[in-house]
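Batch 3, record 17
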Amino acid sequence: MKNENLIQYIYGIADNVLILGQRLSELCGHGPNLETDIACTNIALDLLGQTRSYYQYAAQLSGEGKTEDDIAFLRNERQYKNVLLVEQPNRHFGYVITRQFLFDAFHLLLLEELQNSKDDTLVAIAKKGIKEVSYHQRFSSDWIKRLGDGTQESHKKVQEALDDLWRFTNELFLMTEDDKIALENGVGVNVLTLQEKYNQRIKEVLDEATLTIPETKYFQKGGKQGIHSEHMGYLLSDLQYMQRTYPNMKW
Amino acid sequence: MTIELEQHIDPKLISILEKVSDPEIPVLSIMDMGVVRSAEMIDNIAQVKITPTYSGCPAMDVIGDDIIKAFDNANIKAEVSLVLSPAWTTDWITPKGRKALEDYGIAAPLEEDADKEALLGNKRIVKCTNCGSSNTKLVSQFGSTACKALFKCEDCLEPFDYFKCLK
Ligand SMILES: [Zn+2]
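Prediction for the assembled complex:
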């Protein structure tokens, strides 16, 4: 497998993790209470840590003296391969939890499969990540149940969030060209095969939470090809501000 | 290099490594924490490999710098690198490390099953580090750092951290 394809494959996984980590970081100091604030930022930290491992590996593969920071801060919007789901803004806590829940279930399934990759570094990152993402999934599932099966107001808000976000879930299971090349080479995961398990897992929790999956005719996609929603530019301007304004600055 | 299958540490270097502690839990040396995977002298340079407790653990950079400083104090040049595999587990915390945690006010990790019951089943089994009571309640699955959960003692009413089991 060519390094260039492997690098793109890594971006396809890691960009999701970075962008969701960035969204959660925005909650630092703004969580609904201290415990959830700390929880969200802890999850953000796990995700950013995982991102670093992926980007360090991609930087090493690309040679050219590139660093993890170049990858995180100096690409343009079109070069980010994250799905639309993770870039959606933090509207309210129920929305944040629903987005998290929809991603965590996918993330855990993906890493479980990535453990079987022929690429030793990706296996190592996956094995480390699984331990962390299991906690994330536990956290977001618990909150989905608490909010869904909570008060009328919390139920309404989280059902509305689900109605809005569900249309982004199908994209998680689309194979890009780089995904296909990685799969053929025994490096990548066949995400198509994860969808059934995903739906099962989601339904289990939603049933308990008295929430229902909406009927969705039109699913949104594009992120994996670098075609993002209108929120992505704002997110990146926050994320990249320092490096764009003061190029090469170091902490 | 991200993989280091066997732990191998040159016994002559242990006393230096024991001087380095986790910046967030100063009573715990990195040796007792189990994050040092290998340390050996190669061409007069101490090559030290450490593994993170959690991927995003911000302490790792500081630990790396502190290791280099500790070796520098012993007039040895050191290089530190990070390994990811096999992934760190709380089983690698030594008995001495567990005691240091408890003395510091952090409940040491339970076995996997008990840990699940404490964090998910709300079973009251984590012992309060202040008064020893098991009448304790989970406040949050995430505490002041990613590796800890927050508990409250219903007898002495003190809050305390619990070091989560990671396998
Ligand atoms: Zn007590």
